[in-house]
């Protein structure tokens, strides 16, 4: 199995079309509370009703609630979605929401341990990325040190020298996120969970045709970003126009910023609704990419075993003169002496 881009799109669309209701319901149940918390946390509360310190405390509390919600509910959500996709993949029939919910509850512990393992490995990855980025920053600054001497724009030139380091940091973060593309499917589809599931995601990325996995993921990422930009730009265009206008005054920019803040809850609502509908396709799409990568990786493992150990069935028949014993254990039954 090594599907082309068109085959992955067709399979994902077929999965979405036949499982739209259970997928949409699961995503809605998961995203609706997060959407409400995000809208409330970004809403502008009148300063006359509470002081700035109280306002800051409310914001921190809402963000903390949102974080805890995502941590404890996301394993249940991914277990449900993976169960829906697994049922369609194995049986070709739409999954029942009750069955998917039961599977999500049964696999909750496996998904939670996988989430915790991902957090631990991500923390280590952040440290490594920060170290590499620091080296890139030092190298960029040293290479541009001669341009700083005697210049009246030292700070601006220093930031310009840091641009390569920032590019390196962003590239490493995106690459690490790409390597985790399959970790949400593995606990519900295979035996491994926890750290093993994270390492298997890396293995499938690299061993399951790296460039095809990268291309599939890049394409769906570009499509998603392009659709989201269509929604984002109308909200930001007045502010961008005011900021870039040659004759704009500080009051014009402040007014545009105030207007942008006022419509931010509406933007969050629309972008969340758009994200919900996009996930009904992008999640099955990445599931198809995962199945394709797993199939390629398993095929390579099977070929390697055959090259190393040969065909075990052929060796068995050769050692037994191409005859199969009638009883298990590879031994004939004892002979009964005649009377």
Verbal overview:
- The protein is an all-alpha fold.
- The protein has one domain (5-301).
- It has twelve helices and no strands.
- It has helices spanning 5-18, 20-42, 52-91, 97-106, 108-143, 145-148, 154-179, 186-189, 195-207, 210-244, 250-309, 312-319.
- Helix 5 packs antiparallel against helix 7 and helix 5 crosses helix 9.
- The radius of gyration is 28 Å and the shape is globular.
- The chain starts with a helix and ends in a 20-residue tail after the last helix.
Class from helix and strand fractions = mainly alpha
How many structural domains? Answer: 1
Percent of residues in helices:
over 70%
Radius of gyration: 28 Å
Low-confidence stretches: 44-51, 322-333
Q: DSSP strand (E) fraction?
A: under 5%
Number of separate strands: 0
- What is the H/E string? HHHHHHHHHHHH
Helix tally? 12
How would you state the average pLDDT, rounded? 79
Shape: globular
How far do the termini sit from each other?
A: 61 Å
Question: Biggest β-sheet: count, sense, barrel?
Answer: none
Transmembrane segments: 20-45, 57-80, 115-142, 162-186, 210-233, 253-278
Biased composition (Polar residues): 317-326
Keywords: Membrane, Transmembrane, Transmembrane helix
Region (Disordered): 317-339
């Amino acid at each position: 199995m090594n599907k082309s881009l068109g085959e992955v799109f067709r399979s994902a669309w077929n999965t979405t079309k036949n499982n739209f209701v259970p997928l949409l319901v699961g995503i809605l149940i998961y995203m609706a509370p997060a959407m409400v918390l995000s809208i409330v946390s970004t809403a502008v509360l009148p300063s006359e009703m509470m002081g700035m310190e109280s306002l800051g405390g409310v914001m921190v509390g809402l963000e903390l609630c949102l974080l805890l919600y995502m941590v404890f509910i996301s394993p249940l959500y991914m277990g449900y979605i993976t169960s829906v996709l697994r049922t369609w993949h194995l049986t070709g029939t739409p999954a029942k929401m009750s069955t998917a919910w039961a599977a999500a509850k049964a696999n909750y512990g496996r998904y939670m341990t996988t989430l915790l393992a991902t957090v631990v490995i991500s923390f280590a990855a952040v440290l490594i990325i920060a170290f590499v980025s620091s080296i890139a920053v030092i190298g960029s600054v040293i290479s541009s040190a001669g341009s700083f001497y005697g210049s009246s724009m030292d700070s601006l030139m220093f930031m310009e020298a840091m641009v390569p380091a920032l590019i390196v940091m962003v590239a490493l973060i995106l690459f690490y996120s790409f390597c985790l593309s399959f970790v949400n499917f593995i606990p519900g589809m295979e035996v491994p969970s926890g750290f093993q599931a994270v390492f298997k995601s890396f293995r499938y990325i690299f061993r399951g045709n790296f460039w095809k996995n990268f291309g599939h993921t890049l394409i769906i990422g570009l499509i998603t970003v392009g659709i989201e930009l269509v929604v984002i730009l109308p909200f930001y265009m007045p502010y961008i126009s005011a900021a870039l206008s040659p004759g704009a005054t500080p009051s014009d920019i402040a007014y545009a910023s105030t207007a942008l803040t006022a419509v931010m809850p509406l933007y969050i609502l629309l972008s969340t609704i758009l994200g919900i509908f996009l996930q009904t396709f992008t999640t099955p799409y990445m599931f198809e990419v995962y199945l394709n990568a797993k199939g390629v990786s398993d095929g390579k493992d099977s070929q390697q075993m055959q090259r190393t150990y040969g065909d075990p069935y052929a060796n068995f028949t050769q050692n037994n003169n191409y005859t199969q014993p009638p009883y298990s254990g590879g031994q004939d039954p004892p002979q009964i002496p005649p009377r």
